Each structure stands twice: as C-alpha cells, then as structure tokens.
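Async update (no meeting this week)

Hi team, since we skipped the sync, here's where things stand on the single-chain job. The sequence we agreed to prioritize is pasted below, unchanged from the tracker. I ran it this morning and attached the output directly underneath so nobody has to dig for it. Comments welcome in thread, and please keep replies under the output.
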Amino acid sequence: MRRALFLVGMMGSGAAYAQTAPADDIVILGRGLDLPPGTPAYGTTVIDRDRLTNDASGRVEDVLSDVAGFQQFRRADSRSANPSAQGATLRALGGNASSRTLVLLDGVPIADPFFGYIPFNAIVPDRLAAIRVTRGGGSGPFGAGAVAGTIELVSADRSDLPPIAGEAFYGSRDAQTVSASVSPTLGRGFASLSGRFERGDGFMTTPADQRVAASVPARYRDWSANARAAIPIGGEAELQVRGLAFGDNRTLRFRGADSSSEGEDASIRLVSRGGWQVDALVYLQARNFTNKVISATTFRVTLDQRNTPSTGIGGKIELRPPIGGGHVLRVGGDARLADGELFEDAYSAAGLVTARRNAGGRSTVAGLFVEDDWTIGRLVLTGGARIDRWSITDGFFRERDANGAPTVANAFADRSGTEATGRGGLLLHATRWADLRAAAYTGFRLPTLNELYRPFVVFPITTQANAALSPERLRGIEGGVDLRPATGVQLSLTGFYNRLDDAIANVTLTPTLRRRANVRAIVATGIEASLAWRRGPFSLTASYAYSHSQVRAPGTALDGLAPAQSPRHAASATAAWSPKSGALLSLTARYVGDQYEDDLQTNVLPAATTVDAVARVPVGRRVSVIVRAENLFDAAVVTRNQAGSIDLGTPRTLWVGLRIAG
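Output:
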C-alpha cells in the first residue's frame, strides 16, 4: 500500500499541474536536451524502440546483447540469476559482479546503491524510446563510474506512447506476463502510469545427472509500477517527475535458496531549452535485498542474508550557455551518496545460528565538469574534463555469537581522495558516406559498499570483502570509421585499447576461499564491428566484438590470464521482415565464446549459440497476436561451473500473447 500511495501521489501532483496549461500550445515531449554534435566521436550505438519491444524474451538485458561486448557477470538473465550478479560491463573488463558501466535512466543512475547491480526486472522495454550505448570512459554528468562505458536508457515520450496499451503472454512452464499503461495528454504536458507483473514455475538450472531431492526449478515472480509526468513551465521549460517501485523474488538451484530485491525510486528533472539551456535533476533510491544460501551437502540454510537496506541520493545541474561560434559548451556539477548495511545470520549443519553479522558504510562522489563540442565545417572537436572528490566513511563489520556476545568489532578508517579525469575526441565527416573518429579518455570507479564490506557465498566458495580496496582507474584510446556505402546500409568498425589499473577482482586464495582485491591492471584490446541494412520491409543488423583481455599482476598466478567471466568473442545478428501491414517475422542469433568461471582459468564455460524467433500478426486495427521463441534449438548454455558443479541458462521457451495499443 505504501508503494501504491507513493506512485499515485507523484502522478496526481504532476497531472494536476499539467491540466492547468493551455490546450492549444505545443505538447511537451518529456525528453532531455539534444545530444551534442561530438557524441558520435565516442562510437555510440543506438537500439531503437521497435527492437526493444520485439525481442523474444521481452527483457532489456537480452536486447542489450545485440551490442556485442555487452555482458553481465553471469550468462543468465534476470529470471534465473541472483540479482547481485547483474552488473553490466563492456569490452571484457569483467572480473566481478559490479557494474563497470554507468547505466542511466533519463539521466539518473539506476545501479543499486549497495551492490552496484542493475535491477533489470524493473526496466520494461515498452516504457523506453531507445537505448544509447557508448563504450569507453566518460567525463560528462555522473561520469565517475563509467570506466567501461555508459548505457543511457531513454524513456518513451509523448510521440511514442499510445493513450492506452497493454499486453499479456503465456509461456512454457506456466510462465505469465501482463503489462499495461495509460498515458493521457494533459494540457500541454502528459502523464503515464504503467505496470508489469510476471511469474513462472521456472526451469531446472541443474543438469539432470547432478540433481538431488532438494533440486528445484528456478521459479520467479516480480512486478514493477512506474509513474511519469511532463509538466510545462512557460514556453521553453518542463518539469519531469518520475516514480518507480518494484519487487522481485527468485529461487535458484535448491529448495529454500530464495532471494528478493525491492526498490522505490523517485526523481525530479528540470529541462529548459531557452537561450541558456538547463538540465537539472535530483533523485532518491530506497533499495533492499535478501538471500538464503543452501548447503550443497546438507541442503539446509547455511547463511541467511536477511536484510540489506540501502539508500542512494544524488543530483546534477548542467548548463549550456549560448556562446556561439560553432560551440556547444556544457558546464555543471553532480553528486552521489550511497549508504547501506547488511544483516546476516550464519547457521551450522544442524540448523543452529552460529553467528550474527552486521556490516556497512557510506560512500560519496561529488564533481565538476566542463565539456565543449566545436564544429568547424566537416570537423567536430570534442573535449571534456572532470574533477571529483570522493570519500568512503563509517565502514564497519561486527559479529556476535549465537548468545549475542561480540566476537568481531571492526571500525574501518575513513578515506577520501580527488580524481581528475578527461576525454577528447574528433569526428570528421570526410565524405557524404564516410565519417572518421578518434577518442582518448580516462575514468575512475569507486568500489561499491558490497565489495568493501559484504562477504558472500556461492556454495562451497566463500568470497571475502575487503575494506581497503582502492578506486579503479581507466586509460583508453580508440579509433573508428562509420560508412554509408549505399542507401540503407551502415557499417562501423572500431579498434580500442583500454587499461583498467587497480582493477577489483575476486582473487582465489584456496579451492574454497576467494577475496576481493585490487590487481595491478586489466588490459583489453580489440575490435568492434557492426552492420545495419534495410531494404523495403527487410532488415538485417549484426555486431561482433573481439576483446583480448588480460590481467597484469606480475609475480602472481593471475599474470597473463583472462579476467573471470570475460569472453574473447561475442556476436549477434537479427534478420527481420516487417511490411507496412504491421506484421513481423524476425530471427536473432547470438554467440558468446569460451569464458572462465574463475580467475585461475580452472573452470571453463563453453561457447554457446542461441537462436530466438518472433512472429507478430495484426488481427485488428490496434490488436496483434505475437508468438515468441527463446533458444529455439534448445542449446545448452552453461552459466556456472564450479569444479564440475554446473548451472544452465534458459532452455527452449515458447510464448503466445496479445498486444493492444490504442
């Protein structure tokens, strides 16, 4: 009830304001400021709304796999992976489950304040207009944290949203998905209220020959509700108000191995498109996470991570003064605060509590930035710099025995520092069919509260936290070419070199013990290629990434090895037929190469290829029947391999449903 009132209240206040606007003026769209002209210098890839709403799984993280080189820590999606493993990264700069990619929703960071993972179940594709993926370091707003790139989720605006829309799907293993939205125009503004519920009995992640009596399917149940309003202020500005609430419950591998996550997010954004353009926002996140670890020998709870509350608060202001002369100047500042703690209980094989633990802390980052894009004929020069002040404070770890007597009471020293980062690039429109680009950049990322203070168990492996972790620091260069050799054909090729110093990795100490630690560096070199072709109703998109990623840790067993969970090859292709009638047939193939479960390369996750299919048939003016198939040929996708103990990804899954838009 509290979440419902939160969303209804936000929507009500926005709608009341919007109704006061004159109806004969232009409609406010609910978008941000226009992109600076130098944005393509950093090799940006855009996923459009049509692709977002017509993927076989209906999940944002799977659509992001169209961008070769995108990965999560696990190959599993948000129905069958532990939520804390859903970090996002690019260019094989992996190694742990935290996001090395900055993910923004309408300019607001959405990573969990404690863990750094992305709540993909709360992001519904039909609420988005597009996704913009930029690889490499960033120095613009919220640039701290963008060591592997930036993923910008852009909400659907007035031109994308029908007044009423909904869809319902039924799938394999009694899976159900229902979503709906109402998006009325209110004066010169608009409002949108939407929600989604989904559940499924799940599939067996454990191979048949490894199942025991306690093995159960990976069932899931989640929901999300979103309220958004765009409110005009005068003739050149608008206020954008958003509220998001979500809940997510999953069971993984064994009966009782339950996890949950929940959140309530809110943001207010002011966008002014006058002479002095302004983009300012503030946001608040309230999140929680729980997780039960089941022993693979006794099949009883060994660890109950019963409560992990966290809070994220932040804001930014960006100004674009009208300086003219072909310049687009951006200046501003931003700040983020993350605060959280964990409460967990350890159990013996007999089911008795042996220890009660409480740990947590706080981190802050505040920075100033300046960036300029200068257009000189066919040449666009872009450059920017940031200076950030960071702090890690109030860190602690406490443990009590079953009787409540203290056994550990650690209070960690406060730390702080200053980081200067920057980026620069050029974009040359060499001919009408060829653009040349080059860029260089630096960046940094603070360790998350999870990395600093929370140990975790994926039985039988325990990974220790490390309160002394240093920030990661990136240096990189890249160059590329974008070609349009014929009508409807686009080709892109990029070569890159990235070095992530003090990279945080889960370092193996013994066969059953790992510890988070800074290694000297992860160095990634490679190429990225993409193709887009369209002729009439036919289209083909494809991407490929080769990432040669190595750990540099002289004097250790890690030196020269690939980071954990970092494939060298990844590719994706989608062929589609979409005539004007509104019908659609599409096939998507995805390939991911061999990668290693651990830092010592002892357990391999074999290469895998999956094929998805979607068919859409209009049966009325605003109604379509949709049939979808995930992993059409039922390929075995290994998502975890711990000394032969294996988890599998999504098997063949079939869906049929209705979509209504009117």
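Quick observations from my side:
The two ends are 29 Å apart (CA to CA).
Confidence is low (pLDDT under 50) at residues 1-27.
Reply here if anything looks off.
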